[in-house]
Write a structure and sequence with these properties.
- The termini are far apart.
- By secondary structure, the chain is of the alpha+beta class.
- Strands 1-7-4-5-2 form a five-stranded mixed β-sheet.
- It has three domains: 10-169, no CATH class; 206-292, Aldehyde Oxidoreductase, domain 3; 297-351 and 360-431.
- The protein is built from 15 helices and seven strands.
- It has helices spanning 2-24, 31-53, 61-97, 102-106, 109-134, 141-169, 171-189, 237-247, 279-286, 301-315, 323-345, 363-377, 382-398, 405-421, 425-431, and strands at residues 207-208, 217-221, 231-235, 250-253, 266-271, 289-292, 356-359.
């Protein structure tokens, strides 16, 4: 029975790793359009055979040729619009939002399906029209009907594309999309520990597991460059545990999720009798890592936080100067941190990894990622400082005392920043108040979770 259970666990881990690599790996943008074009060429032969088998002269040949020409011309125009929309979305993402979301926008399924469908309709209509010119005066009814169906489908896809581009250019909806990606990533990464909000202790910001310092150590370096990018996006920890157990060694994972791994950079430190660390075993270790082109929100909770922080930092830059957008970004940061707090506190996923070691991000790390850079860039911006204070106080009210030290430390730093930046008593008083809306009122929030006083309306 144990062998059957081990086999089932092995199959489950393999299937999960395959899904992870498929979800996080880079998508070849050209593959789907090329497949649809090839399918369109095949369908011309299929419907041509149907037309040859069923003769009909109810449709005028000139009318059919005009219809096919109009469809082909319209599709090539829509293809140009898809290219323009993709370029605009990537430019907006790079300049106004975050470079971490540009690959996601570039590989968006709606963009790829729109481009492929428009090109496939164009190629199909062009081939059918050319066949009409080379044959007798007989209109291909079935082929023309399918071309009309493709035109209607392309029109619907165009409406969907316009809606998608509108969502991308709307920073509020794009922030919500990044936050939704962060929600899904957090729930995939951590178990749900919200049932007992006071249980568990905060893990120290140190490597998990223990390593014998006297054991011989061998470094495994990156000597084969990955084809899909150099940013580490996932690690197959169960497989590493099995390899370490089988070889009788301890494996220390040196890069963290999101790190760019340079050529010849060390990937693993193998502790133990590693004389038999052959090329095959090194490839097995490398196969437990998945690389991509960017640390995007679907990769890890820290990537989602960093993407939202990027939006806030660009909003606070002198070129844009939009503190309202920064306040919206902090809203989503607070939401993600509240979701993270109990899961990080009660994370037990690595207790079974007796052979695998490495750095595990802690609650202090997530608080630092979400707040420190915004605090640095919030100079002379009252509403951002008030909203950031509300975030820290809300987290302090929603977490046990073990998770308070990084929050208290940043509240003290925020107090020092306010006293150093503002000179008048009024400005100091305004900037020292917590307000979930940034500057929703002079007195700020009076809710028990933030201000400690009675709620006023």
């Amino acid at each position: 029975m144990r062998a059957v259970a081990d086999l089932g666990r092995l199959i489950t881990d393999w299937a999960r790793w395959r899904r992870t690599k498929r979800r996080l790996g880079s998508v070849r943008i050209w593959r789907l359009p090329v497949m649809l074009i090839f399918l369109a060429v095949v369908m011309t032969g299929v419907f041509g055979a149907i037309d040859n088998a069923t003769e009909s002269e109810t449709v005028d040949t000139g009318t059919m040729a005009t219809l096919l020409s109009a469809i082909a011309g319209g599709m090539i125009t829509l293809t140009g619009l898809v290219f323009t929309a993709t370029t605009l979305a990537m430019q907006f993402g790079a300049t106004q939002v975050s470079v971490r979301v540009v690959p996601v926008l570039q590989q968006d399924p709606i963009m790829r399906w729109s481009n492929g469908l428009f090109l496939a309709t164009f190629v199909y209509s062009l081939i059918v029209a050319s066949d009409m010119a080379s044959e007798d005066n007989r209109a291909p009814i079935a082929s023309g009907a399918f071309a009309l169906f493709l035109a209607v489908a392309s029109a619907i896809m165009f409406v969907v594309l316009v809606s998608k581009v509108g969502r991308i250019l709307n920073s509020t909806r794009l922030l919500r999309w990044i936050a939704d990606e962060g929600h899904r990533t957090i729930k995939r990464t951590f178990i749900d520990a919200s049932s007992d909000p006071t249980a568990g202790a905060v893990a120290a910001p140190a490597p998990y597991g223990t390593i014998d310092p006297d054991a011989p150590m061998t470094l495994v370096r990156l000597r084969r460059l990955p084809s899909k990018g150099r940013v580490l996006v996932a690690i197959n920890l169960p497989q590493l545990q099995r390899l370490g157990t089988r070889w009788g060694v301890q494996l220390d994972v040196l890069p963290r999720i999101g790190d760019f791994v340079a050529y010849e950079a060390p990937l693993f430190a193998v502790y133990g009798d590693s004389d038999d660390l052959s090329e095959i075993r090194q490839r097995q270790l490398l196969a437990t890592m998945c690389f991509g082109d960017a640390h995007r929100p679907a990769v890890s909770p820290s990537a989602a936080l960093q993407a939202i922080v990027d939006v806030a930092l660009k909003a606070l830059s002198p070129a844009i100067n939009d503190p309202g957008r920064a306040v919206q970004a902090i809203d989503h940061l607070e939401d993600l941190l509240l979701l993270l707090a109990p899961r990080v506190r009660n994370d037990r996923t690595l207790e079974v990894l007796s052979r695998v070691h490495g750095y595990r991000r802690t609650w202090n790390d997530y608080v630092s990622l979400a707040t420190d850079e915004i605090r640095h860039f919030s100079t002379n911006t009252t509403q951002v400082q008030r909203r950031l204070r509300a975030l820290l106080l809300t987290l302090q009210a929603s977490t046990p005392p073990a998770q308070h030290p990084p929050l208290v430390e940043r509240l003290a730093a925020l107090d020092q920043q306010v006293r150093a930046e503002w000179k008048t008593d009024l400005d100091i008083r305004l900037a020292s108040v917590a307000d979930p809306q940034g500057l929703g009122s002079e007195s700020g929030s009076q809710s028990p979770s933030v201000g400690g006083g009675p709620e006023l309306r």
